[in-house]
Amino acid sequence: MQHVPEVFGPGTMLYVGASPRRAQFLSELMAAGREATLLEIWPENCRHFEGRGLQVVCGDVRQVTAMRLPLAVYDLAFWWHGPEHVPAADLAGALAGLEARARLVVVGSPWGESRQAEVDGNVHQRHVASLAPEAFERLGYRVDTIGRVNGGSRSNILAVKWTS
């Protein structure tokens, strides 16, 4: 996160998507002073995180504007390796919802093709979109890439947008 050092400071955070096996940067962000609300779609993952020092809301990021969340607006919305789990046609709407709920939106995604099937019976773990930097740039995000396109777990898109 050297490209966006602002994420590692105190404030509120809407952290989108986490499982017992993967909650990238969550503990580091909380240790840096972020008060976290987790938004997760899979009920089993929601139950896993309850009582672990963060508020848990079970729901779909694509409906974030209509959700009852603990706060109306967060300092940070953090969606790391999640956009590839929603259809590409839903990306703009999901990001617009996060932008309406946060002052800073930070998103990470595999760059290009990255296959993944469901994990532990969770159909939401499937990768259903292969994304390119332009998908985020068209929506006003500052974008950086790490690795090379279609590099699997070694390639990433980092997209950042300040909304206020």
In short:
This protein is an alpha/beta fold and 164 residues long. 18% of the residues lie in helices and 27% in strands. Strands 3-2-1-4-5-7-6 form a seven-stranded mixed β-sheet.
Description:
- By secondary structure, this protein is of the alpha/beta class.
- The chain has a single domain (5-162), classed as 3-Layer(aba) Sandwich (Rossmann fold).
- The chain contains four helices and seven strands.
- It has helices spanning 26-31, 43-49, 91-101, 133-137, and strands at residues 11-16, 34-40, 55-58, 74-80, 102-110, 142-146, 156-162.
- It has a seven-stranded mixed beta sheet with strand order 3-2-1-4-5-7-6.
- It is globular and about 40 Å long.
- The model has no long low-confidence stretch (mean pLDDT 89).
Descriptors:
alpha/beta, globular, 164 residues, Rossmann fold
Topology:
Elements lengths: L10 E6 L9 H6 L2 E7 L2 H7 L5 E4 L15 E7 L10 H11 E9 L22 H5 L4 E5 L9 E7 L2
Radius of gyration: 15 Å
Adjacency order of strands in the biggest sheet: 3-2-1-4-5-7-6
Distance between the termini: 20 Å
Let me know the number of strands: 7
How many structurally independent domains? Answer: 1
Query: How many helical elements?
Result: 4
Q: What would CATH call the architecture?
A: 3-Layer(aba) Sandwich
Can you give the helix content as a percent range? Answer: 10-25%
The level 1 CATH classification is: Alpha Beta
Please state the average pLDDT score: 89
Poorly predicted runs:
none
Order of helices and strands: EHEHEEHEHEE
Largest sheet properties: 7 strands, mixed
Report the portion of residues in β strands: 25-35%
Q: What global shape is seen?
A: globular
Helix and strand content put the structural class at alpha/beta
